[in-house]
Amino acid sequence: MHAADIIRSVEAEYLKEKLPTIHVGDLVRVGIRIQEGGKERIQPYEGTVIAMRHGGLSETITVRKIFQGVGVERVFLLHSPKVAEIKIVRRGKVRRAKLYYLRDRVGKATRIKQRFDRSLD
Prior knowledge:
Elements: H1 3-14, E1 27-36, E2 39-53, E3 60-67, E4 70-77, E5 83-90
Antiparallel strand pairs: 1-2, 1-5, 2-3, 3-4
C-alpha cells in the first residue's frame, strides 16, 4: 500500500455519509453544536454558499449572510463533528464557482435566481 492509500482509508472512517449535494449559490441552514456550560445546543446559521473548497475530509463551504446590516461570512468544515446538520433551503442558479462579488453588493442586488431541480435532497 502506498502512503496515499493509507491516508484515504483513515479519512474514510471520519467522512459523513448523509450530506446533501451542495452547490455554490444555494441557501443553506447549517446546524452548529454549541457548548454553553455543561449543556450542548444546536444553533442554526442560514446563508448563501459563496465558495466551496478542497475535497474529501477537508471539504469546506463559505456561507455568507447579512446580520443587522453587516455581512458575515463563516467557513464550515463539512465533516466536522461540530456541524450537526446541513439543510438546503433553496437552490440557487449561478454561473460562477466563487461568488465573492456579492461582498460588494447591497440589498436586492445580492439576490440569486432560484434553480428548479427535481432532485432536492
